[in-house]
Amino acid sequence: MSEFVKEFTKQNSPQFRKFKKYIEDNNWSLDSDIHTKEEEYKIHHSLCMTMFTRLKHFATKAEADLHLKKSREVLKLMLSTLRLHTERVDFYLSGFDITEIEKSEDKTDEIVLQNKLFKEVEKLKDDIKSLNVEEDKKDLSGIQFYNDTKAPLSMHKILSEMYPDIKKKIKSMGIDFKSSPDNEFLIHKKDVPEWNNDKHYFEQDKKTLQFWVDEYKKIERGIEVDGVYIHPWTYFHLNVFKTDIPHPVENEFTGEIESKDIFMHPPLRDNEWYVIQDSYRDAEKAQTMLFIAATRRLFKSTGLASHFQWKALIGGKELIVGGASVKDLGQIEKNFKKSVQGADGAFTLLNLTNDWTGKVEFGMRQRNNKRIPQCTLHVINLNAGGDKSSEVLAGFTPDAFAIDEVMKAPFIEQLDAAKPSFDSPYGKRCIPL
Question: Are strands 423-424 and 400-404 parallel, antiparallel or unpaired?
Fold first, then answer.
């Protein structure tokens, strides 16, 4: 919990409770004298406007922490008090029969009072709504998933089309999916908003969701740093992807330096720059395949795992990785699986199936267990096809494609079978690796 939330709660909650109790105990709408009624209402409305001013301040200063339990508690106290006031006015306006008043001067006074109540309280309700701090349970309560799974941001494009209420909620929050994000690396940012894993992406507070939407833009579009374009795959690899990186550590017993793997974002090396920033970008521009061979420790199994995770997050539906070595394929699968499972909440990929030796499917399940597919990774042993091994890569429509360890198999024939699937009327569906 942030220090601001803690201090705000300590300073304000006692007074808020007094406000609420006073409003509960003094129901002005029951008073028969219109002038007494109006004076009491003014007191209530003044208390509520003071509370609204504090609510507005809290919503602005604690925007990134509104999902926390302590924040929701003090929000509930303020909102319930304001709601008590506004609902009392609504009840009064809807239930009062002005024709029962006999004196014309009393009718005039009542009309003036009701007009005053209506204008002031409707404005207050609009102002509260504009803060976007009330949980919209009415519209989205019916959107539930199997085993109470929480929807990640990576599923937005699919879920917002399936559920119009999600699209409406995101629009009402004013989340911007179009403008250019900043040009700073995520790994360099301070005070990164914490993603609440107990909530769907569309239930996050506005500041948190907008922050991660902006990061999503970067892994779709890339960024520019000091005039240098950083490819979206490069940005993803350095800021989202994680893998085991060897580090020198001192043995606490012998004092000798040993190597220890640490699961982390990879550092930027010449290798990744050469493969992605130079070679992959050239292949994109020329609309060709990218062939890399005769290298050691360049950027192979780790790079392919990174590539497929990046493609899955930005909307790839069918991902194909083939190889002639079960051992080498297993290393790609291991790196891919570990990074996916270690991804931050906004960029989670959820498993529908777990057969990592053949076909891994990602997505969610509806409450009735019906599947909502996101993408599929096909892991194909090129030596497992028998007489038809040359056709083992045919019949797919890949959004990402790679053959690992090409020199260990008759890859030309197998690649020829896959070539037609790379093309579309508008260029390459993907850059085959």
Answer: unpaired
Contacts with 431 (C-beta within 8 Å, 6 or more apart), sequence order? 280, 283, 284, 288, 289, 290
Contact indicator for 142, 169 with CB cutoff of 8 Å: no
**Cα–Cα nearest to 302, from 326, 333, 345:** 333
Q: How far apart are CA 430 and CA 163, in angstroms?
A: 29
Buried b (16+ CB within 10 A) or exposed e, 379-403: bbbbbeeeeebbebbeebebbbbbb
Residues 226 and 85: their CA atoms lie apart, in Å, by 54
CA dihedral sign, ordered 275, 265, 207, 367: positive
* CA pair distance 410, 187, nearest whole angstrom: 42
pTM reported for the whole predicted model: 0.67
User: Using alpha carbons only, how large is the chain's radius of gyration in Å?
Assistant: 30
pLDDT of residue 433: 94
Contacts of 341 (CB under 8 A, 6+ apart): none
CA distances from 151 to 159, 376, 429 (A): 9, 18, 28
- Please report, for residues 16, 205, 306, the alpha-carbon distance to residue 50 in angstroms, rounded to integers and kept in the order given: 10, 24, 52
Residue among 314, 137, 357, 107 nearest 306 (CA): 314
| Buried-exposed string 25-44: b where 16+ CB fall within 10 A, e elsewhere | eeebbeeeeeeebbebbeeb
Rounded Cα gap, residues 432 and 283, in angstroms:
9
Tell me the average confidence (pLDDT) per consecutive run of 10 residues in the chain, 433 residues long. Answer: 85 94 90 87 95 93 77 91 91 69 70 90 91 62 81 94 88 92 95 91 93 97 96 97 90 89 92 94 95 80 92 94 84 86 87 80 88 91 68 88 84 88 86 95
Name which of 215, 195, 399, 233 is nearest 317 in CA terms.
399
- The sign of the torsion formed by the CA atoms of 318, 319, 322, 328 equals negative
Tokens of 211: 């922050």
Block residue for tokens 């008043």: 101
- The pLDDT of residue 141 is 56
Per-residue pLDDT tens digits for 125-170: 999 988 888 754 444 556 788 888 999 999 999 999 888 889 888 9
- Concatenated DSSP letters for 314-378? TT--EEEEEES-HHHHHHHHHHHHHHHHT--GGG---BS--BTTTEEEEEEEBTTS-EEEEEEEE
Residue type, 399: D
